C-alpha cells in the first residue's frame, strides 16, 4: 500500500506575504494540503472604521461556503478522481468490486480496510444477519406513523428510536470515551453497534415499506443473503418456501455495493459532524439519513422519475431542456460536485439495468430518459458546465422496473450507505489524536453592536424577508372562522 508523502523539504511550503503588514509567512504543505489554522497566525491591525466583527487583529479566516475545497479528515477509505471518473474503495476499483464482490463483503472492506478471508467474512455476515431482528416494540413505533408517511421520514426516525434501546452504546450515559479508547472492549462495543445498524437497516426499511402496504411485519429469515433477506422481508406474505428472484437479488446487491460509500458527501459529512460531539452512532446515522433525504443528494433518484413522468415522452425533451437552460427546471440526475466527466457508477447501473429489464421488462420511461440523456450530452449548456449523468439518473429506472414505489427510492440509497457512514465514523473515533468537535467559523456581516429600542420608539421594518409570513391555517372551517370566542384576534 502506498504511503502518503510528508512535506519535509523547504520547498514543500507556501510563502505568503500579507500586503497589509508586509510580513512574510511560511506555511507548510503536507500531502498537498495547507492547514487552515496556519492562516490564523496572519494578523493585522484593524483599519480605522473597519468593523470590529471582522476580527482582523485575531487572525485571518479561511472562507469556503459549501466546502468546495476544504479537507476535514485524513482518510484511508475511499478515493475519487472526479476528473478521470475514478472511484476506489480502499484502493480497489469500483468496477472490479461490482463484478466480483458482494455488498456485505465490500462493507467489510470499507469498514475494516481489507478484503475478508472466508472465515472472516462468515463471522461478519453471521453477526450482521443475526442483528437483523428488532425489539417487538418497533412494530408499535412504525404503527404510530400516518398511513401516508414518507418512508424516509420513518427510516430517519427509526434509527434515532433504535438508539433508545441500547443504553450501553450511549456515550452520554457510559462516558464520553466509550468509542475512542481503541482497546478491545471499546472496539467490541463499536463493532456490535456496526453489526446492529447494518443488520437492522434492512429490517427498518422493510417495515417502513410494509406499513405503507398495510401488511404485517416479517421477522428476518434465516438462510438468505443480506439483500435476499431484505426482499423477503418486504414481499413475503405467507407463501411457502418464498425465495426472491435471484436476478433481482443480484442487481439490488450490486446497487447496494456501488452506493455503499462515496467519501465525504453531504450525508457522510453530516454523520461525522454529528458524531464529532461524541453522540451515540444511532443519532449520528439518523442525522445522515436526514441529509441524504434532500433532492440534491439521495432524494435525486426519486426526483429523476418525477421529472421523467412530467416530461412524459421523448418529443417533450427539447422543451424541457430549454426550460432547464432558462433555469425554470432542474435536470435531476445530472451534475456532481466531484465528477466533472462521468460518474463511474452510472456505467455499472446501466449494465445492471439491462439485466433487470430482461426479467422485468423495460420501463416505459426508458426512452424518454435516453432522449433526455442524449439531448443533454450534446447541448452546449451542459457541455460547458461539464454536467454528466450521475448514479441517480439511471438507478431510479431500475427501482421502478423492480416495482418499488417512488418515495422508497431514497431508502434504497440510505440502507447501503449506512456502511460508508459507519466506516467513516469508526475511522474518526479511532483517529490519532482523538476526536475534535467540528465547529466551523463564520464571517459575521450582520449589525454591529446597537442598543435596545423600547417598543414605543420602534420604526416598523417591512419586507417579505424581514417580517413573519401570514399563513392559512389548515383544518379551520368556515364555521370556525365565523364563530366568536374569547381572545379571537
Ligand atoms: N441541471 C441544470 N444545471 C445544473 C445542474 C443540473 N442538474 N447541475 C448543475 N447545474 C449548473 C448550475 O446551475 C451552475 O450553473 P452556473 O455556473 O451558470 O450558475 C453550474 O452548473 C455548476 O453547478 P453547481 O450547482 O455550482 O454545482 P455543485 O457542485 O454546487 O452542485 C449538484 C452539484 C448539487 C449535484 C448539482 O449538479 C445538482 O443540483 N444536480 C441535480 C441534483 C442531483 O442529481 N443530485 C444528485 C447528486 S449525486 C448523489 O448524491 C448520489
From TrEMBL:
It comes from the Eukaryota. The active site is at residues 336, 392. Residues 478-489 have a biased composition (Polar residues). One of its GO terms (biological process) is monocarboxylic acid metabolic process. GO terms for molecular function: acyltransferase activity, acyl groups converted into alkyl on transfer. PROSITE patterns: CITRATE_SYNTHASE. Residues 463-489 are annotated as: Disordered. PANTHER family: CITRATE SYNTHASE. This is Citrate synthase.
Amino acid at each position: 500500500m502506498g504511503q502518503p508523502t510528508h512535506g519535509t523539504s523547504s520547498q514543500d511550503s507556501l510563502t505568503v506575504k500579507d500586503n497589509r503588514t508586509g510580513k512574510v509567512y511560511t506555511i507548510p504543505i503536507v500531502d498537498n494540503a495547507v492547514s487552515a489554522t496556519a492562516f490564523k497566525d496572519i494578523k493585522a491591525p484593524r483599519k480605522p472604521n473597519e468593523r470590529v466583527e471582522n476580527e482582523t487583529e485575531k487572525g485571518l479566516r479561511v472562507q469556503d461556503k459549501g466546502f468546495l475545497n476544504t479537507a476535514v479528515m485524513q482518510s484511508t477509505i475511499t478515493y475519487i478522481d472526479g476528473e478521470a471518473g475514478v472511484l476506489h474503495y480502499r484502493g480497489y476499483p469500483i468496477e472490479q468490486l461490482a463484478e466480483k464482490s458482494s455488498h456485505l463483503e465490500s462493507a467489510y472492506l470499507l469498514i475494516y480496510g481489507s478484503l475478508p478471508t472466508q472465515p472472516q467474512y462468515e463471522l461478519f455476515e453471521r453477526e450482521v444477519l443475526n442483528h437483523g431482528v428488532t425489539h417487538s416494540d418497533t412494530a408499535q413505533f412504525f404503527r404510530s406513523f400516518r398511513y401516508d408517511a414518507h418512508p424516509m421520514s420513518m427510516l430517519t426516525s427509526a434509527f434515532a428510536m433504535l438508539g433508545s434501546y441500547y443504553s450501553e452504546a450511549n456515550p452520554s450515559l457510559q462516558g464520553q470515551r466509550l468509542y475512542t479508547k481503541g482497546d478491545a472492549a471499546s472496539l467490541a462495543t463499536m463493532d456490535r453497534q456496526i453489526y446492529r445498524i447494518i443488520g437492522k437497516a434492512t429490517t427498518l426499511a422493510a417495515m417502513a415499506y410494509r406499513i405503507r402496504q398495510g401488511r404485517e411485519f416479517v421477522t428476518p429469515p434465516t438462510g438468505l443473503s443480506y439483500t435476499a433477506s431484505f426482499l423477503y422481508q418486504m414481499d413475503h406474505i405467507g407463501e411457502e418456501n418464498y425465495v426472491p428472484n435471484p436476478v433481482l437479488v443480484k442487481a439490488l446487491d450490486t446497487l447496494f455495493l456501488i452506493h455503499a460509500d462515496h467519501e465525504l458527501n453531504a450525508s457522510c459529512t453530516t454523520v461525522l459532524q454529528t458524531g464529532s460531539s461524541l453522540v451515540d452512532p444511532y443519532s449520528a446515522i439518523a442525522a445522515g439519513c436526514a441529509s441524504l433525504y434532500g433532492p440534491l443528494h439521495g432524494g435525486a433518484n426519486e426526483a429523476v422519475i418525477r421529472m421523467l413522468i412530467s416530461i412524459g415522452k421523448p418529443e417533450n425533451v427539447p422543451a424541457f431542456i430549454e426550460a432547464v437552460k432558462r433555469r425554470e427546471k432542474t435536470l435531476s440526475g445530472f451534475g456532481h460536485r466531484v465528477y466533472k466527466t462521468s460518474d463511474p457508477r452510472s456505467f455499472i447501473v446501466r449494465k445492471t439495468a439491462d439485466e433487470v429489464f430482461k426479467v422485468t421488462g423495460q420501463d416505459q420511461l426508458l426512452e424518454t430518459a435516453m432522449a433526455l440523456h442524449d439531448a443533454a450530452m450534446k447541448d452546449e449548456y451542459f457541455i460547458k458546465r461539464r454536467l454528466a449523468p450521475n448514479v441517480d439518473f439511471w438507478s431510479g429506472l431500475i427501482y421502478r422496473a423492480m416495482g418499488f414505489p417512488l418515495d422508497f427510492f431514497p431508502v434504497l440509497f440510505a440502507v447501503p450507505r449506512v456502511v460508508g457512514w459507519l466506516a467513516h465514523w469508526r475511522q474518526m473515533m479511532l483517529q490519532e489524536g482523538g476526536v475534535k468537535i467540528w465547529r466551523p467559523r463564520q464571517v459575521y456581516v450582520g449589525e454591529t453592536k446597537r442598543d435596545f429600542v423600547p417598543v414605543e420608539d420602534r420604526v416598523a421594518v417591512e419586507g417579505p424577508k424581514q417580517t413573519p409570513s401570514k399563513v392559512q391555517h389548515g383544518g379551520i372551517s368556515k364555521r370556525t372562522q365565523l364563530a366568536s370566542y374569547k381572545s379571537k384576534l
